[in-house]
Amino acid sequence: MWIYLLAIPAALAFWKRREIARLIAVNSLFSERRIVRNFSSMGKSFATVAMTRGDGPVSPLPEGPAMELTPQMRAWIEQRRVTSVLVLKDGRRVHESYHLGTSAQDLRISWSVAKSFLSALFGILVHEGAIGRIDEPVVKYVPELAGSAYDGARIVDVLRMSSGVAFNEDYMDFHSDINRMGRVLALGGSMDRFARRQRRRRDEPGRSWLYVSIDTHVIGMVLRRATGRAIESLMEEKLLHPLGLEAAPCYIADGHGVAFVLGGLNMRTRDYARFGQMFLQRGRWQGRQIVPESWVVASTRPSANTAPGETRYGYQWWIPPDGDTREYFARGIYGQHIYVNEPCNVVIATNAADRRFREDGVEAQNIATFRLISQTAAAL
Questions:
Q1: Considering only CA atoms, which of 365, 367, 335, 364 is closest in space to residue 35?
Q2: What CATH number does residue 370 fall under?
Q3: Residue 103 counted as domain residue
Q4: CA distance 153 to 268
Q5: Per-residue pLDDT tens over the stretch 299-318
Q6: What total number of domains does the chain contain?
Q7: Residue 129 belongs to what domain range?
Q8: CA-to-CA distance for 30 and 355, rounded, in angstroms?
Q9: Contact between 183 and 23 (Cβ < 8 Å)
Q10: CA torsion sign, 175 to 304 to 82 to 274?
């Protein structure tokens, strides 16, 4: 009998070997020894949905005058464990470099930079009429969220991270909601089910701001229900194919093949820069209006009820707490950024493996460095 009892866990381990491998990958994803390599090879550790770049030509990123890095910039690259940095001035590459053994061909994980891509897609579909108005209730499009913490929230509340849902986003707490969500993803669970099971509220919808990543998944649910299509299909057709990417991107996916839209997009750094340049040009690219200009303006302006002195927030885009509102950025954990500076006509795309990204002063240092780079590039 004991032989059979021993065989049971062995059989379960074989049956669930992929899920167990992914869970192990999650637990070692951010280790100092493996983080750089992991961030450029997420498809080896997680389920993904393949995407295409389309049949059109690669859109040009012509070279401009070379920008020399100052000692301060070089120190920032080293301190923040930057793996790539690409600077566009007037749409031309004035600096591009890769570090820590990475290359221009790597598909790099976006983390929450992906949220800004989903926001852009949402704006396109609002313009096309697939979504009526952003002040409509979420449950109009996703009725299975009735009775959840999202019942009563408007789409615009969720876009602004003002849903009122109670959610612990502490990546350093093993038991936090964000880490429980990561384990759901690794073990092949359903992100939709995870969203439906959110029951706790910390505030009434629309009244206060709190960064809640599951909000972005709910935005994806709205798009999928409104169109009857998968996000990756919509993203290809409406946004990525028109951009003329260099390489086919991919999304990390849950066990049901649903794209992890809140942080699972993987692209080359040059393609992140193309997206940023398109936003700098108010949604226009290669003679075509891809994202409505009105949405570009609305989504990158501070409209959420963030506290005074905090980094401000629009529709899945960040705005510095000080300075010109024509300066905004997409941001992902561990140092991923697409920074847009309209007055300087500069776009900066960076990827990194910064395990100290949560420390006090790091984000302020990042913004100060982006501003220094922008001013240096503008003077060329």
A1: 335
A2: 3.40.710.10
A3: yes
A4: 35
A5: 999 999 999 999 999 999 99
A6: 1
A7: 46-378
A8: 7
A9: yes
A10: positive
